[in-house]
Amino acid sequence: MQRFLLQLAKLAAGCSLVFVAACATKTASDDFVEVSNPYIGASPGAPATIWVPRSSVEGSAVPRASVLVEKGASKLSEVMGSSKPDSNEVASAPASSQVQPVPAVVPVQTPQLNISPKRRIAVLEVKDNGLILPLSNKLEHLEAGILLDRHLPSFMGKYSAFPDRSDWGAFSVRMQREFGANVSVFVSAPDRIAPGKIILGAVYDGFSGYLVRTVEAQMPSYTPPADPSSPSSALNVALDELAGKLKSVIAFLPWYGRVVSVDNDRVYINAGSETGLKLGQLLKVYRGGKVVPGVGFALGERVAIVEIRGFVGADGAFGVVKEGKTVQVDDLIAVE
Fold it and tell me: Which contiguous run of DSSP H or E holds residue 320?
């Protein structure tokens, strides 16, 4: 490109010399003006100044020679591209004026590890009406969360222990501490299943013991004499409706885990692969919290970030602290 510019400069300088020679006999007048020679040094003996028509430098649309050279250089730059030649190489004109498209750089996609964990659900009956198993199966089919085994020791108490609603909140907190249940659902139904009867499902937050919402489903009408299976079919329809409503409520509840043990640099939590955690996933660790009246449980101070390094049992995991303070037993875990 330097060679190209030098040749243009020499050509323009030569033209200027011819012009000066042609006008050598002319004297300065209003039609001409003396300007500095922009190409002095481009050729031997070039004069320091030259005379040019005044119209070429004032109010004229005709560009000066230096402007033409600049435009030519810009055009050449567009053809050759914006890259500069190496200082040890001589720039040369491209073989083709067609600029080849540069392939787009595709960014490397990193795996998304911030997966929303599944919530543990405890389904409890106010009375022994046989609804735990069918309702649990429907919630599991809807993938509402992880259903706790109804044969666990805490489920073996008499159902008559839950007739008073004032006990439900305290028991939901107990289910959270002992089995990691994020939510407890208390199911109540009338003593006699019949058309138009209502089945209730009360959803309690396991960390605050607060009632989140009560949903209901009504038994559809049927004619028992016509089909002996009608009551079962009607109950199945009502439980389908109840399970769908319960899933919608549970989905809005936040997921929290708990630190159950700390061994040197390992932090063990009560959630793992069944919950949906992944190796390398980052979890926030909080210490303390409080129950906000009318709202629910609010996490306390965030103290650390833990990275999942391995799994323990069917649904446990351990990790290491990546950032923050020392983690303690009973600290709470939330997704990062």
Answer: strand 316-324
Task: Tell me the C-alpha distance between 108 and 329, whole Å.
Answer: 38
Instruction: For 167-214, write each residue's pLDDT tens digit.
Output: 899 989 988 988 899 999 999 888 777 888 899 999 999 999 999 999
CATH topology of domain 257-335: Thrombin, subunit H (2.40.10)
Backbone angles phi, psi at 303, to 5 degrees: -110, -20
- SS3 labels along the chain: CHHHHHHHHHHHHHHHHHHHHHCCCCCCCCCEEEEECCCCCCCCCCCCEEEEEHHHCCCCCCCCHHHHHHHHHHHHHHHHCCCCCCCCCCCCCCCCCCCCCCCCCCCCCCCCCCCCCCCEEEEEECCCCCCHHHHHHHHHHCCCCEECCCCCHHHCCCHHHCCCHHHHHHHHHHHHHHHCCCEEEEEECCCCCCCCCEEEEEEEECCCCCEEEEEEEECCCCCHHHCCCHHHHHHHHHHHHHHHHHHHHHCCCCCCEEEEEEECCEEEECCCCCCCCCCCCEEEEEEEEEEECCCEEEEEEEEEEEEEEEEECCCEEEEEEEEECCCCCCCEEEEC
Name the one residue in this structure whose structure tokens are 């210490």: 287
Tens digit of pLDDT for each residue in 64-101? 555 544 555 555 455 455 444 444 444 444 444 454 55
Backbone phi, psi, residue 75, to 5°:
-60, -40
User: Are residues 261 and 300 in contact, defined by beta-carbon separation less than 8 angstroms?
Assistant: no
Question: CATH fold of 120-250, please?
Answer: Rossmann fold (3.40.50)
- pLDDT-derived band at 29, boundaries 50, 70, 90: low
**All structural domains of the chain with their residue ranges:** 2-80, 120-250, 257-335
pLDDT in tens, 129-153: 788 889 999 999 999 999 988 776 6
pTM over 0.85: no
